[in-house]
């Protein structure tokens, strides 16, 4: 089974370091954002399994981010665990009002935080088991077996191609920039040229054969997965 992905949105580097270290050690895949806008963008784009969200953030506050996540069908189900300072008791109330699932007051013990995370993830997977399969026409991604099937035949995709396709297929109709795709398919901190994405997409389209045309080029932006026509 794929590792669960946790996004940490927190502007204190010492805290993100400690959290990232411990979450990694617990087997989670960790993504970090150090300001609010970056955090919201990464949440919308990478669709993590859980978001750890600080309230006081530069550029966009945690409450605002939570509200945004809840307002969109693609992110509404993602569990949000808020981090609040002890003096901000009202923030907790407001936090729940905008849709946070749980909160932890600073300073907290990492052990307690890990327990809360486990509970939230378990609860989330109990109500939302279907996201392991993504389908569009004759193309299907099975996350559990980590396979892509075209007309029921498995395709030999590289891990990067797999992640690119998954990112695009999860949000059909949405245009992703090359920067977006790099972050989601190759990961934070990787030093690659944006043209690298074009190379991966080219190879992916070739392997997808007739379904390759489902990956559309968005001029001046990047790529998107074609939306299925709703009416039949
Ligand atoms: Ca903060």
In CATH, the topology of the largest domain is named Rossmann fold
- The poorly predicted ranges are none
Shape: elongated
| CATH architect. name of the largest domain | 3-Layer(aba) Sandwich
* Range of helix content: 40-55%
Largest sheet: 5 strands, parallel
Which distinct ligands sit in these coordinates? calcium ion
Structure description:
The protein has 232 residues and is α/β, with parallel strands linked by helices. 41% of the residues lie in helices and 22% in strands. The protein has two domains: 5-125, Rossmann fold (3-Layer(aba) Sandwich); 133-231, Winged helix-like DNA-binding domain superfamily/Winged helix DNA-binding domain (Arc Repressor Mutant, subunit A, Orthogonal Bundle). The protein is built from eight helices and twelve strands. A hairpin with a 2-residue loop joins strand 6 (133-136) and strand 7. The radius of gyration is 19 Å and the shape is elongated. The two termini are 35 Å apart. Bound molecules: calcium ion. The site of calcium ion has 5 residues, from loops.
Give the key terms.
Rossmann fold; five-stranded parallel beta sheet; 12 strands; Arc Repressor Mutant, subunit A; single chain; 41% helix; binds calcium ion; 2 domains; four-stranded antiparallel beta sheet; alpha/beta; 232 residues; 22% strand
């Amino acid at each position: 089974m794929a590792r669960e992905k946790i996004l940490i949105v927190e502007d204190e580097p010492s805290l993100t370091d400690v959290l990232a270290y411990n979450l990694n050690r617990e087997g989670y895949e960790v993504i970090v954002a150090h300001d609010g806008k970056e955090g919201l963008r990464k949440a919308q784009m990478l669709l993590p399994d859980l978001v750890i969200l600080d309230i006081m953030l530069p550029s966009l506050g945690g409450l605002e981010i939570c509200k945004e996540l809840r307002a969109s069908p693609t992110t509404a189900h993602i569990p949000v665990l808020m981090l609040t300072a002890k003096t901000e008791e009202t923030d907790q109330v407001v936090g729940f009002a905008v849709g946070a699932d749980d909160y932890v007051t600073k300073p907290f013990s990492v052990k307690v935080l890990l327990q809360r995370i486990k509970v939230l993830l378990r609860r989330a997977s109990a109500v939302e088991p279907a996201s392991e399969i993504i389908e569009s026409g004759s193309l299907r991604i099975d996350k559990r077996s980590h396979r892509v099937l075209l007309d029921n035949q498995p395709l030999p995709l590289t891990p990067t191609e797999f992640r690119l396709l998954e990112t695009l297929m999860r949000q059909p109709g949405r245009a992703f920039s090359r920067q977006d795709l790099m972050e989601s398919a190759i990961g934070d901190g990787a030093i690659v040229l944006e043209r690298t994405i074009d190379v991966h997409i080219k190879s992916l389209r070739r392997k997808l054969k007739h379904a390759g045309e489902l990956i559309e080029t968005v001029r001046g932006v990047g790529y998107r997965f074609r939306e299925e026509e709703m009416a039949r």
